[in-house]
Each structure stands twice: as C-alpha cells, then as structure tokens.
TrEMBL record:
Gene Ontology CC annotations of this record: cytosol; membrane
Membrane is among the record's keywords: yes
Family, similarity comment: In the N-terminal section; belongs to the HesA/MoeB/ThiF family.
Domain Rhodanese: 301-391
Primary localization: membrane
Organism field: Spongiactinospora gelatinilytica
Membrane topology category: Single-pass membrane protein
Localization: Membrane
Domain of life: Bacteria
Record bears the keyword Nucleotide-binding: yes
Protein name: Probable adenylyltransferase/sulfurtransferase MoeZ
Database matches in InterPro entries: Rhodanese-like_dom, Rhodanese-like_dom_sf, ThiF/MoeB/HesA, ThiF_NAD_FAD-bd, Ubiquitin-activating_enz
GO molecular-function term, one example from the UniProt record: sulfotransferase activity
Keywords: ATP-binding, Membrane, Multifunctional enzyme, Nucleotide-binding, Nucleotidyltransferase, Transferase, Transmembrane, Transmembrane helix
Length: 393
C-alpha cells in the first residue's frame, strides 16, 4: 500500500541545497519534488538518546527543513556507547542542546527547534501540532502510549522503534491508514516485566539499525515513495542477522482508533496507566528507603541484616556492595525469591539506582517482611558516597 506524500513541496531549492542534496536529486523516486517536500517537512524526534541519535543525524543530513528535538535529560558517560550524536565534551550538557549542536554542524541549512522539556500531557498536543510527523526514540511505555494517543488524536503518523540487547522492532502507526500502537499493544506490560535497556543493556550499534529504519520510513512518508511500514511490524535479530516483517491489523475494537472509541482525549496520567506505583505504595517505599551511608553504618554495627542485590549476574560482576547476595528481580516477580529470604533478619534490598529494588520491596512487604527496606540510589550511590574507587556503570 503506497500512500500520497505527507507534505507539499517547498517552492524551490537554493543553489547550496542543490549541491548538498545532489545524490538525492539524481534518484528518480526522490528527485527535485521529493527533496522540496523534505525541505518543507517538519519532523519531531522525541528523545535524543539511543534511537534519537542516529535518527536526528540522518533526518538532518537528509534535509528535513524543520527538525524538532525534545529531551529533558543530560548526557551521561554511559550514554556515549550508543548515543553518537553526543561526544565526550557534552557529558553533563542538556541532550537536546548537545544534539542540536551536532545537527547544525552536519547541516546548517535546516531549522532546528530545541524543546528542553519532558513531553507530558500538558504540552504534547501543542508541541505535536507544529509537526507533520513524529519519530519516537524514547524508552518508556508511559511516553509511548502518550505519543500514540496524541498522534492519533491529531491524525499524525507515528514512527516507532524499540530496542533491547540484540533485538529491535519498528513500525509506523497511523490510524487513518492502519493500526495504532494500541492496536498492537492494547495494554501496557505489567510493571517490571519488560526490562529497560538500563537494566538489560543494549548493543550500541543496534540503535543505528533501528534508528535508520525509522528515518527511512519518515522519508518515505514525507515524500510519498515506496511501501511504508504501516500495518507491518519489522522485527530485527542482530545475532541471527534476520529481518522479518509481520502483519499488524487495525483492531476494530481498539479503544482509541476503533469503531467505538472510549478514549477520545489524552489520559490524565500515563504513568499510572502503565502501572506506576500508587501514591500509597510510593509513600510506603519512600518510608522504607535508607541511604548507602545508613547501610554502611548497619554493616559496621554488625546489625542482623540480609542484603539482597536484585540486579542481574553480569551487573553484579561489574560492581557490587560487599556482603550482598544476588537474587535477580525476576525471582521476586515469579515468587521464587521469597523462599530464599531468612525470616529472622532484616531484609535490605538494592539494585543499580533504586528503581528495581523499589519494585521488589513492594513484593517483599506484601509477603509479610514488613520491616524490609531498600537502598535509595542503589549501588551507584554506594560508589559515590562510600567507595569512589569502585566503578560506576
Ligand atoms: N517524556 C519524555 N520527554 C522527553 N524525553 C524523553 C521522555 N521520555 C524519554 N525521553 C528521552 O528519551 C531518550 C531515550 O533514550 P535511551 O533509552 O537511549 O536513553 P537513556 O535514558 O539515556 O538511557 P539509560 O536509561 O540506559 O541510561 C532519553 O534521552 C530520555 O531522556
Ligand atoms: Zn488503534
């Protein structure tokens, strides 16, 4: 199914533009008309991280006339293994600004719009309304459902990608011509069931494989060439080196884009929709959070504690807190961990930075270990405040 071009062509290309884009211009399918459409196009990339890095670099190089970049985060050293739009000297800098600088260096002929904010229900409709197409490079379900809902409500195509370890997926969701993200994934996964790249890792170059597919689809949609990935899910296995696509049908019962939609505006709270802890549960976790210093004091006093590291074996091997027993979070989710916990000791949980241990803590408390606590900031906080000679990751 080919689709008409998403944007009208710009009136003309300048002499500089003709020189710069000549290798596009001589492809018959792109040509002058296609390049003028790219010039007139406004594309927003959500997230300047793993997928956003290659996506932004190639969208800019291709001559997309207005490129929006939205990210609230700052560049961390552990980002540089894959977020190639940022360099060593950008560590600590706002990602959107760092990305904008790289993009302008690659192509000074385009307009770059920097949004140094978190995309939220307060701003998503207004921000999206200024763009023709959304490329999603984010890493969390709450943002994806929000991006999808806003894109459907505004009738804009949503170019989605997802990566984990050696596996990638991509698709184009566009309710007017095919399924939306909710047709494919009607419900978010239970909290904690799908590990993030921060938990499970990701091969850096996988970002380029999937991010460049997203750009490829964006260019096809903007210029109206080829078969867009609408109604198809592309699945990439980097270890087996296999690409395959499977059909995704529009769900007539979809709550958002189906025949009788029940979702007709943005949800109030996408975090809650994706199963973030309720306020009560969050308070319980906050009340049971200790610092790395408090843990060290407990150990020095010889308190009767059982320290559990809920990360994965390979993370444990990178750096660990002395005295910790490894029981990965998955074992808390499936219940196996509970048999390994002593009844007569105070349970202290930790992970990398406090997210996974908070999830495990809720399970442990529910199972009756009412005085269990977890270490806020996890092993990273231990490294920072107790033993800076240890590595961070
Ligand atoms: N709601 C949002 N608004 C703006 N930017 C977002 C939003 N949600 C996620 N992002 C950004 O999307 C990017 C996702 O990239 P990626 O998963 O590679 O990165 P990361 O969060 O830097 O990595 P890690 O979690 O491994 O430390 C991040 O830069 C993140 O700040
Ligand atoms: Zn749908």
């Amino acid at each position: 199914m080919s689709l008409p071009p998403l944007v009208e062509p710009a009136a003309e290309l300048t002499v500089d533009e003709v020189r710069r884009y000549s290798r596009h211009l001589i492809i018959p399918d792109v040509g002058m008309a296609g390049q003028k459409r790219l010039k007139n196009a406004k594309v927003l990339c959500v997230g300047a991280g793993g997928l956003g890095s290659p996506a932004l670099l190639y969208l800019a190089a291709a001559g997309v006339g207005t490129l929006g970049i939205i990210d609230f985060d700052v560049v961390d050293e552990s980002n540089l293994q894959r977020q190639v739009i940022h360099g060593q000297s950008d560590v600590g800098r706002l990602k959107a600004e760092s990305a904008a600088a790289s993009v302008k260096e690659i192509n000074p002929l385009i307009d770059v719009v920097v949004h140094n904010v978190a995309l939220s229900t307060d701003n998503v409709m207004e921000i999206f309304s200024g763009y023709d197409l959304i490329v999603d490079g984010t890493d969390n379900f709450a943002t994806r459902y929000m991006v999808n809902d806003a894109a459907v409500l505004l009738g804009k195509p949503y170019v989605w990608g997802s990566i984990y370890r050696f596996d990638g997926q991509a698709s184009v969701f566009w309710a007017e011509h095919g399924p939306c993200y909710r047709c494919l994934y009607p419900e978010p996964p239970p909290p904690g069931m799908v590990p993030s790249c921060a938990e499970g890792g990701v091969l850096g170059v996988l970002c380029a494989s999937i991010g460049s597919i997203q750009v490829n689809e964006a260019i096809k949609l903007l210029t109206g060439i080829g078969e867009p990935l609408v109604g198809r899910l592309m699945i990439y296995d980097a270890l087996e080196m296999q690409y395959r696509t499977v059909k995704v049908r529009k769900d007539p019962e979809c709550v958002l884009c189906g025949k009788n939609p029940s979702v007709t505006q943005l949800l109030d709270d996408y975090e809650a929709f994706c199963g973030a802890l309720s306020e009560d549960a969050q308070q319980a976790v906050t009340d049971s959070t200790i610092t790395a210093r408090e843990l060290k004091d407990m150990q020095d006093r010889g308190d009767d504690i059982f320290l559990v590291d809920v990360r994965e074996q390979n993370e444990y091997e990178i750096v660990s807190i002395p005295g910790a027993t490894l029981i990965p979070k998955g074992e808390f989710l499936n219940g196996a961990a509970l048999e390994k916990l002593p009844q007569d000791k105070k349970i202290v949980l930790h992970c990398k930075s406090g997210g996974r241990s908070a999830e495990a803590l809720a399970i442990v408390k529910n199972a009756g270990f009412s005085d269990a606590v977890h270490v806020g900031g996890g092993v990273l906080s231990w490294v920072k405040t107790i033993d800076p000679s240890l590595p961070s990751y």
